[in-house]
Amino acid sequence: FYKxxxxxxxxxxxxxxxxxxxxxxxxxxxIEFFLRTTGVLTLxxxxxxxxxxxxxxxxxWNSLIKFRRMLGLFAFFYGTVHLITYxxxxxxxxxxxxxxxxIQRPFIAVGMGALLLLIPLAVTSTNGWIKRLGGKRWAxxxxxxxxxxxxxxxxxxxxxxxxxFYPVLFGVVLAGLLAYRLVPKPARGPGLKxxxxx
Length: 198
Description:
single chain, 198 residues, mainly alpha, 10 helices, globular
């Protein structure tokens, strides 16, 4: 039930976007609005995915782990929608046009790099792949989520140029999540364990 609830809520932004597009309420440049929104949604789901483990450890919310892979897949889903929208509606599926655009606007290459990193993570998100790779190798591979999120933040920052509030906000949150992972945790001594247990 809760997974269905998460999935439904994750799709609500896309449903709202589709409804606004149907009514012609996406502003003067609907393609740019759709691109910007799906890009931000990709970053949001990446950040939420990365936040699962710190929240679980900090507050003991162990049930959150059940939704981490689903949230990561929604990040990939919105990133794919972002790329498809750009390729079809902005570049008319012209490979030459896309290549020329990447050369002229490097932020597109950065964004594509972020999405490319998410592909192996989406493919190996099943229990079968965890068994094939082994838990440790699978966990090391999925640390690429941090790299993809960093590239996503840089991509966002390069797009907005002057109004950098939201890219900086994403960057600060991501830095905090990365610091949580990198900073060594203090080891509990036997005395502390006994005290807590008592």
